[in-house]
Amino acid sequence: MAFKGKVNIVVLCIMMLFITHQGFAQKWESQFVKIESNGRLKYIADEMGNIIPDFSRVGYHQNTKAIPEVKMVLTLSATGDSDQQKIQQAIDDLSKKQADKNGIRGAILLKKGTYKIPESLKILASGIVLRGEGEETRLIATGRGKRKTIIASGNGKVNEIKDTRVKITNHYVPVGAKSFAIASTQGLNVGDQIIVYRPGTDKWIKDLKMDQIEPGTGTVQWIAADYNLQFERVITAIKGNEITIDNPVVMAMEDQYGGGEIYKYNFNGRIAEVGIENLYLESEYEGDIDEEHGWDAISFNKIENSWIKNVTSRYFGYSCVNLGNDSKQITVQDSKCLEPKSQIIGGRRYSFNNDGQLNLFMNCFASEGRHDYVTGAKVCGPNVFYNCKSENAKADIGPHHRWAVATLYDNVVTDGEINIQDRGNWGTGHGWSGVNQVLWNCTAVKAVVQSPYVSGKNYAIGLKAKKYDGRLAERPNGVWEGQNKDGLNPKSLYLKQVEESKK
Prior knowledge:
Largest sheet: 20 strands, parallel
CATH topology of the domain at 58-155 and 268-370: Pectate Lyase C-like
CATH class of the domain at 58-155 and 268-370: Mainly Beta
Shape: globular
Strand content: 35-45%
Number of helices: 4
Helix content: under 10%
Structural class: mainly beta
Distance between the termini: 61 Å
Number of strands: 41
């Protein structure tokens, strides 16, 4: 008995040493982002002046407002039969009411119960919240056919205001910059919405070698005119011919690639202040690889300053949340995408998909997806995935194809891969998937992080993963720092940046 007691003491001591080591891992800082003696971040520029950008001003009202608790104006109960028409009528009726000074019309509460939705519910006006009572409010996508169960979308598009286009005069505007010079500030005011326009050019495509993608099935070489990027910004200060904007430049403006321009714009028809809350959405299906059933649980497009929270989807073929190209300043939080049903091949299982800009996904969970936290083609950042987890992953997390710009993956954990690379001729010529992507304190089984030949870098800072060569091993290596090393400080770049933005 005495011997057994001694063994137990030894085991306990070993455990305590392990716990102590884990709890007090030596802190270290990135060479690109330091913490000064006053506790604030200091960004270290490269030889061209580029820094890791500020990602803090993404999501609902750029983190300047909390998501509101919208007053309930109508309560509905399930009938056990199709409730789509009843819910849609309530949405349409509320759409006709006057919004308050904050653009809010009110919340429709769906009481606990099962609501059968054979087609789609559509929110086409601002200020409407669709709220449930948690996972006991069940929306079931019934019947056959691919469709979106909840659609929130306005109309229209970015419209350039005539005679407002002005040339950026700096020869080089680095990544991370919030100020730059233009030919004239005449007619511009603080508060103006502008597009920071970065043209695609033949020289840029050539230097990126995206006119030389190895031919495959249906491979399409990149065309310059398809890569005119439009970053939505707001002017916050004007001094002489220099303007300051609310969010940073996230892809360098270079004379050799056509420089850049700005112009004022409007987006008449875009809606705002829409919320989807506390709902469980499920799709009927006829087998594990059935694809004629609910495809997106929630789809947003042509919408800004809106939110999705506490939502669970199950059995959908594509996504829990799919944000389109014209979605801006959306927060998606505390949501789950579970057990998708489809073939496990391309074009399926993009659990949380973002094609818009200035969007935030936080505290989300996905299981059995292919691309769980993912961006598509020509996605204009900054965007953030923070504190998100993936289990039983069937493919990789990261920018998926054709040049997504500036996404921060912060404390993202997966039992699959995280990849940022030249995808070559996959998917008819995906090519370079992204630039100025930042992996911060993430965890994966393995990862590839490459940097494109021109126009920026990709970073793996504090990434816990096995490094491998990826699809095309001869491509330039990305920036790797502190691989498999505990103690990165700050633990979350995003949270630290948000903290500083509020001071």
